[in-house]
Amino acid sequence: MALSNAERQRRFRAKRDAVPAEREKYLMKGRERYKQECNSGKRKPVEQLAEREKRPIRKRWRIQKRKDRARERETRNIFDNIQTPVSSSDERQSIRNKSSIKRKRREEAKVYRDKRKLEPEVSNLQKKVAMFKKRLYRKTEECSKLTPDTPKKRTRKLLRHLSSKDAKRSLFKCEVIMEAIRRTWRKEKGQSRFYQIPLQSNS
């Protein structure tokens, strides 16, 4: 079956456009012809046309530009497939492993940077905690001075600041003094009166 004129033209254009150099040569001739026709007055430049006449021309340009970009992508993909050999499964696994290692290193670097950024803040918080501890200690000391000094409190203070040996010595002295006081009271008030005084020892 014989081809129609339109089909022959379509095949001719497809064959011509398949070669980038031939396609560029055709476009260059078209641009030169357009300039010559504009200079001779046979055709008006697009910028001199009315807005109604510009719209179909620009539409054709956009369609042609999309076709050109699609053709360039297809040609580039074909060229890349020819140049790049098909990688084996081991090579693909190696690429994935390298990508995983890079990602892990990026995450570790980010954690390190975040840690360095937070160090001054942590240091300031530690200083504030120490400062508030000192304030609390001073307030506690002030409050303890305002409360009455009871025998129980004096005993705690004595045991807090003395060693075991010093505490035993102090308690022994207290017992000696208490015994002396008891003897004095026995002589003055008698045995029955002595057992009623609040200075009795529980030892």
TrEMBL record:
Residue ranges of the region described as Disordered: 1-109
Lineage: Eukaryota, Metazoa, Spiralia, Lophotrochozoa, Mollusca
Compositionally biased residues, Polar residues: 78-88
Protein's recorded name: Uncharacterized protein
Organism: Dreissena polymorpha
Residue stretches of biased makeup (Basic residues): 55-68
Biased composition (Basic and acidic residues): 15-36, 44-54
Superkingdom of origin: Eukaryota
